Amino acid sequence: MRRLAAYLEMALDQGESVVLMRVGVQARGVYIGNPSGAFEALSGQGTIAAFEADEILALTRLGLNRMTADDQQYRFMRSVRYIADRQVAVFTPT
User: What does pTM read for this prediction?
Assistant: First the structure.
């Protein structure tokens, strides 16, 4: 969850969301930006292993989530969207 917390911090700083997208069998791309806009407008932040992304999804749920990482509290909404014909998980800090 520390990895998600780091991405949520970036999203908070930019007033945007974290977007998690499948880029293959073994990896998931992480982007910061507005998931309602064009894919090209999202800022790529690299990739994480598929197992790590699956763990993040298993530890969160659709709708409002709360978590603590390194003594910092986070509140965010997890939702699902389609970007460039791909289903993505969106984490929006609240």
Answer: 0.94
